[in-house]
């Protein structure tokens, strides 16, 4: 019902803007026709006409953007509520079961493992929301250190494999040719958050089977690029720029519902920019997978604390 109301409001404001613009054009043309001999008045009328039209267009654009922003925020609140409520309900269910029917040791250990997974999921959602607020207010990177990317990416891959119960062959990482060590100057926890979000997205949007390929490369001798490719649902061209906005989630098909808060890629973009880098997405289309590239400036040399 709320979705229908929002769509109706959007259609109403668009139609209102179009109608007002058309009325203004008709009135202006009529006015000029009846006063065609008065050049100064005609010029003033044309100027006022364009001011009026500009105001109407800006007002319509603003209203439509506000409607879309409210839609994304409502979607975010629903997603966060679900992400918080589901693990809490699951933990409570298993606690009640253990209280009423203690069962054998093997069953208890299985329940404990499930509750730990639910608590990790709950903690990840809370940390994601807190991190989004923290990064939105932060003006510059604090506590930056020299970070070697290959071990960090490998550690993030191990975390995601455990988190999603995947075998090692589902997420692979190419060796760097020549055993080159690539360093960046970064806040290691923020950078870990960005890489984990990219890997989590690659796994979540591969419902038919996870096959994620990661590699590190040097670009123009000054940038290190982490590429993460999957064979999942893919992206439409119009979605590629939108997916990095706060609260925005790429639509899934009717058969597959992807869980999430719409903050993951927003965090990735914010972290990349704060580190002087960028993130880009590409896809051949729906059902053809996607590739995300996280680009960061290479750090060459030592920090003052690293020198003897």
Structure report:
This protein is of the alpha+beta class and 308 residues long. The chain has 2 domains: 1-137; 145-305, Histidine kinase-like ATPase, C-terminal domain (Heat Shock Protein 90), CATH 3.30.565. Helices cover 56% and strands 13% of the residues. It contains 6 helices and 7 strands; from the N terminus they run αααβαββαββαββ. Strands 2-4-5-7-6 form a 5-stranded mixed β-sheet, covered by helices on one side. A two-stranded antiparallel sheet has the order 1-3. A hairpin with a 6-residue loop joins strand 6 and strand 7. Helix 4 crosses helix 5 (188-204). The longest helix has 62 residues, at 39-100. It is extended and about 95 Å long. The chain starts with a helix and ends in an 11-residue tail after the last strand.
Characteristics of this structure?
single chain, 308 residues, alpha+beta, Heat Shock Protein 90, 2 domains, 5-stranded mixed β-sheet, two-stranded antiparallel ribbon, 56% helix, extended
């Amino acid at each position: 019902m709320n979705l229908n109301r929002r769509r109706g409001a959007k259609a109403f404001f668009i139609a209102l803007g179009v109608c007002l613009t058309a009325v203004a054009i008709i009135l202006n043309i009529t006015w000029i026709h009846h006063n065609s001999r008065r050049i100064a008045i005609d010029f003033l009328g044309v100027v006022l006409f364009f001011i009026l039209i500009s105001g109407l267009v800006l007002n319509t654009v603003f209203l439509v953007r506000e409607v879309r922003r409210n839609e994304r925020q409502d979607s975010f609140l629903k997603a966060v509520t679900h992400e918080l409520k589901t693990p809490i309900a699951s933990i409570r269910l298993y606690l009640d079961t253990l209280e009423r029917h203690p069962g054998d040791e093997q069953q208890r250990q299985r329940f404990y493992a499930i509750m730990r997974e639910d608590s990790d999921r709950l903690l990840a959602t809370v940390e994601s929301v807190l991190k989004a607020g923290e990064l939105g207010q932060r003006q510059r990177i604090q506590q930056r250190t020299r970070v070697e990317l290959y071990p960090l990416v490998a550690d993030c891959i191990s975390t995601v494999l455990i988190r999603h119960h995947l075998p090692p062959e589902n997420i692979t990482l190419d060796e760097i040719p020549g055993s080159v060590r690539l360093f960046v100057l970064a806040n290691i926890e923020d950078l870990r958050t960005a890489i984990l979000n990219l890997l989590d997205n690659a796994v979540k949007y591969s419902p038919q089977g996870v096959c994620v390929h990661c590699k590190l490369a040097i670009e123009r001798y000054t940038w290190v690029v982490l590429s993460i490719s999957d064979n999942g649902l893919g992206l439409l061209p119009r979605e590629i720029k939108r997916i990095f906005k706060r609260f925005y989630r790429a639509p899934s098909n009717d058969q597959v519902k992807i869980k999430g808060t719409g903050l993951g890629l927003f965090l990735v973009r914010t972290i990349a920019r704060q580190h002087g880098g960028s993130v880009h997405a590409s896809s051949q289309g729906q059902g053809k997978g996607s590739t995300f590239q996280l680009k960061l400036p290479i750090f060459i040399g030592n920090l003052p604390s690293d020198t003897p």
